[in-house]
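Note to self: keep these together.
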Amino acid sequence: MNADLLRQRRNLIAISAVLLIFDFANVTIAKISVLGTELLVGNARILMVCAWILWGYFFLRYYQYWRVEPDRHIRAAFTERFDKYARSYPNGKPIQDSYGQEYKYKISRTAFARWAYTLQGYDPVKEGVIDGATYNLPVWKLAAWSVQSVAFVCVQTPHATDHILPFALAVAAPITTFLTKWQLFTAGF
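Structure:
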C-alpha cells in the first residue's frame, strides 16, 4: 500500500470512528479547546455538519487513491481459496487424468438457479482441452464455497482490513447516524 493511500485510509477511519462514537455515546459539544484557548460552541450542529463534510471528502479521497492502487490482491486471494474448494469437487480430492495431470474445471450456469461442473483435461492427440464428466453443482455448494472463501480472505489475510474495513466503517457511519437519529427525523412529521 502506498503512503498516499495509507494517509487517506487513516483519515477515513478516524473521521468515521469519531462519527460512530458521537452517535453511540450521544456526545454533545459545549466547549472546544484550541491551542489552550477555550471556545464556547453556540451551535454544535455546525460542527457536526463540518464533520460530515470532512467525512465525505475523506471518503472520496480514499476511494480515488484505492482505485489507482495497482494490485489489491483481494480478488486473487478469494479466487485461490475458491479454486481450492472447487478442485476437490465431486469426490473430495483433485482428480487426475491418465497422464497424471490434474483436471481443470469449468463452472457454468445451465438455468436460473442451476449450475454445472465440468472437468476439463488436455488431450495430447487433439492438442487441446476437452470436456470430461459433467456434474450438477448444487447452488448451496457454490454459495458455501463463496462464503468460505470470503471468510478466509477476511480472517486469514490482511486484505480485508487493509482495503475493505475503511469502506465498512465509512458506510456504517451514516447508517448509524440515520438509525440513531430516526426519532428526531420522524418527530417533526
